[in-house]
């Protein structure tokens, strides 16, 4: 049995993660003389979906949260503003953009997970104690309806 | 204005009157407020949520015309616009009742503002580093063989990555005592954590306690791992058991989404609260 859950995600540590604490430069830096390397780094980001997908994902979550008027909300304008500001050509090395991409992906994950968690919570939890019938049917069983026998078997 | 204040504080009325009846210390009164905030669900008492910039450039949250306060009674202020908007979105997302357990960013801000456990930075760093000694990805199993292989394939690359990134030795072990982590490693991480401010540290400690791993948390904060990857690696053994025995939606998925939401909130909180210097630099360049 070959076990690889996320095996395609691991490659050697990309350069852009090496120095994140001193990342105050906002402009984009060309990687000196290694175009192929830059492309490899960008392919490292393949584990994250593209920023367009993340953007659309966040907007979809905002619409679910706030209804049809979501375009008037603070969050909508902020998210659109950020995505427009950080739109940089793909062949360049830009730490600020990577940071923004990671942050936006994290925010999408927060919104999605909270929604899914609430959906499961409303479905299975938070309704107080279940009746014995419900508990039994959860695991695929039925309770007997008469003493001494099940009452519903033929 | 006074009327609205009274209405806003009515939620604490219970807690306050209780504390008048039975003489308690300041600390227990504090704890009581925190417990009532989570135990009872309140109805949504506001229509609009907006943000405004107050004194010292700090952002505040307004629910209709009222200013949001922390459970400890302080004015709710956050250092930057992004965090303020994210918090406002959480309040705006509440439907009929306020579900505080889904408002992770608000909770983290409250914790950072009130500091309910009254700890200083050193104590927080020590608490976070305690998890290094019992780090999830340092403890390996000896059987079954498939899980041994899985842990090796998935955890070793992260371990090697962090050892190279911080130039430290951590290692893994299958004994119950865990690996012997050298003092130099702890010192390196202590210094690194010391470079974060109190807010970021609050978020970081939250992430570490969620993932039960310093290595995975640092990997995620340093943007080597996405939230989903970090959560998956933190729950590796559980994922293995799910593959073997099947998935139970109301337990496994429920836990996973909750863990993801909490971890994502913590990571975002760390990034947003250590960001302010970046923004200033950009304004200077423009």
TrEMBL record, chain A:
<comment type="similarity">
    <text>Belongs to the FMC1 family.</text>
</comment>
<dbReference type="GO" id="GO:0005739">
    <property type="term" value="C:mitochondrion"/>
</dbReference>
<dbReference type="InterPro" id="IPR037667">
    <property type="entry name" value="FMC1_homologue"/>
</dbReference>
<comment type="function">
    <text>Plays a role in the assembly/stability of the mitochondrial membrane ATP synthase (F(1)F(0) ATP synthase or Complex V).</text>
</comment>
<protein>
    <recommendedName>
        <fullName>Protein FMC1 homolog</fullName>
    </recommendedName>
</protein>
UniProtKB/TrEMBL annotation, chain B:
<protein>
    <recommendedName>
        <fullName>ATP synthase mitochondrial F1 complex assembly factor 2</fullName>
    </recommendedName>
</protein>
<dbReference type="InterPro" id="IPR023335">
    <property type="entry name" value="ATP12_ortho_dom_sf"/>
</dbReference>
<dbReference type="InterPro" id="IPR042272">
    <property type="entry name" value="ATP12_ATP_synth-F1-assembly_N"/>
</dbReference>
<keyword id="KW-0999">Mitochondrion inner membrane</keyword>
<dbReference type="Pfam" id="PF07542">
    <property type="entry name" value="ATP12"/>
</dbReference>
<dbReference type="GO" id="GO:0033615">
    <property type="term" value="P:mitochondrial proton-transporting ATP synthase complex assembly"/>
</dbReference>
<keyword id="KW-0496">Mitochondrion</keyword>
<keyword id="KW-0143">Chaperone</keyword>
<comment type="similarity">
    <text>Belongs to the ATP12 family.</text>
</comment>
<keyword id="KW-0809">Transit peptide</keyword>
<dbReference type="InterPro" id="IPR011419">
    <property type="entry name" value="ATP12_ATP_synth-F1-assembly"/>
</dbReference>
<comment type="function">
    <text>Plays a role in the assembly of the F1 component of the mitochondrial ATP synthase (ATPase).</text>
</comment>
<dbReference type="GO" id="GO:0005743">
    <property type="term" value="C:mitochondrial inner membrane"/>
</dbReference>
<keyword id="KW-0472">Membrane</keyword>
<comment type="subunit">
    <text>Interacts with ATP5F1B; involved in the assembly of the F1 component of the mitochondrial ATP synthase (ATPase). Interacts with FMC1.</text>
</comment>
